[in-house]
C-alpha cells in the first residue's frame, strides 16, 4: 500500500473517534504500520480533529525518527512504536480517553468485566488493567504489553484505553467496542450484581465470532 493511501485511511479513522464519543478536543490517536517499509503513520501532537489532513499525519520509523512530516508527532508515539516493535502481528494501534465509561474504569483502576455475549465474541474475556505509567516514554507501552495477553485492548489505570489490531481499522473497531461494553457494564453494575458467563462459554462465543460470524469467502 502506498503511504499516501495509508495516510488517507488513518485520517478517516481519526474522524471516527469524535463521532463515537471516544475523544474530545485533541485527545486520542490512531496509527498504522505500512506493510512494505514498517514505517508508522500517526497523528501530529495537539492536532484538533477538524484541522487534521491526510498529509499532515506524521510518518516515523519504529524508533521515532521522522521520515516525513512538518509537525511534531503525537505524545503517545513512543507507546505505539513500543507495541509495534514487540508485536509483529500488530499493524494498527488506537488510543482513547472515551467520554463515558471505559475511562471511568481506568480512573478507579478496574478491568472491564466480560458480562455479555457480544463482548465475549469480540474480546474473549475481560479487558485487562495495566498499572499507572507516565506519558511520553516507553512505560505505557511496556505496561500495555505486560497485561494484554491475547486481548485486543487494555485499560491503563488513571488514563484511558489502548487497543491493537491487524489493521488500524481493527484497532479503532476494538476501541468502539470497548466503550460500548464498558458503558453497558457500568449500567449493569448500578442495577445490581451482574450474572457471570462461564469461562468455557466465553471461549466458545469468542471462537464462533472469530471464525464463523459474518460473510466468509
Ligand atoms: Zn492518553
UniProtKB/TrEMBL annotation:
Coiled-coil annotated residue ranges, if any: none
Any one Gene Ontology biological process term?
pentose catabolic process
According to its UniProt record, this protein's enzyme class is isomerase
Q: Which UniProt keywords apply?
A: Isomerase, Metal-binding, Zinc
List the EC numbers from the record: 5.1.3.4
Task: Note one Pfam family from the annotation.
Answer: Aldolase_II
GO CC, alphabetical? cytosol
Keyword Oxidoreductase listed? The answer is no
Start and end residues of each Class II aldolase/adducin N-terminal domain: 8-186
Give the molecular function GO annotations.
Answer: aldehyde-lyase activity; L-ribulose-phosphate 4-epimerase activity; metal ion binding
Q: Which cofactor does it need?
A: Zn(2+)
Look up the domain of life of the source. Bacteria
InterPro entries listed in its UniProt record: Aldolase_class_II_sugar_metab, Aldolase_II/adducin_N, Aldolase_II/adducin_N_sf
Which reactions fall under this protein's catalytic activity? L-ribulose 5-phosphate = D-xylulose 5-phosphate
Zinc as UniProt keyword? yes
Entry-linked PANTHER family: FUCULOSE PHOSPHATE ALDOLASE (PTHR22789), L-RIBULOSE-5-PHOSPHATE 4-EPIMERASE SGBE (PTHR22789:SF8)
Family, similarity comment: Belongs to the aldolase class II family. AraD/FucA subfamily.
- Name the UniProt record assigns to this protein: L-ribulose-5-phosphate 4-epimerase
- State the species of origin: Candidatus Thermofonsia Clade 3 bacterium
Amino acid at each position: 500500500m502506498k503511504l499516501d493511501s495509508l495516510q488517507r485511511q488513518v485520517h478517516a479513522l481519526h474522524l471516527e473517534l469524535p463521532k463515537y464519543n471516544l475523544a474530545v478536543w485533541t485527545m486520542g490517536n490512531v496509527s498504522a504500520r505500512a506493510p512494505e517499509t514498517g514505517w508508522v503513520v500517526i497523528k501530529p501532537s495537539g492536532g484538533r480533529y477538524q484541522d487534521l489532513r491526510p498529509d499532515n499525519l506524521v510518518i516515523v520509523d519504529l524508533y521515532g525518527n521522522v521520515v516525513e512530516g512538518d509537525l511534531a508527532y503525537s505524545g503517545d508515539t513512543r507507546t505505539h512504536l513500543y507495541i509495534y516493535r514487540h508485536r509483529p502481528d500488530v499493524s494498527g494501534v488506537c488510543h482513547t480517553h472515551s467520554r463515558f465509561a471505559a475511562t471511568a474504569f481506568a480512573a478507579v483502576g478496574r478491568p472491564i468485566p466480560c458480562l455479555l455475549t457480544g463482548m465475549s465474541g469480540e474480546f474473549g474475556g475481560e479487558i485487562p488493567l495495566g498499572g499507572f505509567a507516565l506519558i511520553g516514554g516507553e512505560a505505557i507501552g511496556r505496561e500495555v504489553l505486560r497485561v494484554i495477553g491475547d486481548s485486543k485492548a487494555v485499560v491503563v489505570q488513571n488514563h484511558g484505553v489502548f487497543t491493537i489490531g491487524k489493521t488500524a481499522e481493527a484497532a479503532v473497531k476494538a476501541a468502539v467496542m470497548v466503550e460500548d461494553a464498558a458503558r453497558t457494564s457500568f449500567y449493569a453494575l448500578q442495577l445490581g450484581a451482574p450474572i457471570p458467563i462461564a469461562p468455557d462459554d466465553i471461549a466458545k462465543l469468542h471462537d464462533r465470532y472469530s471464525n464463523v460470524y459474518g460473510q466468509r469467502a
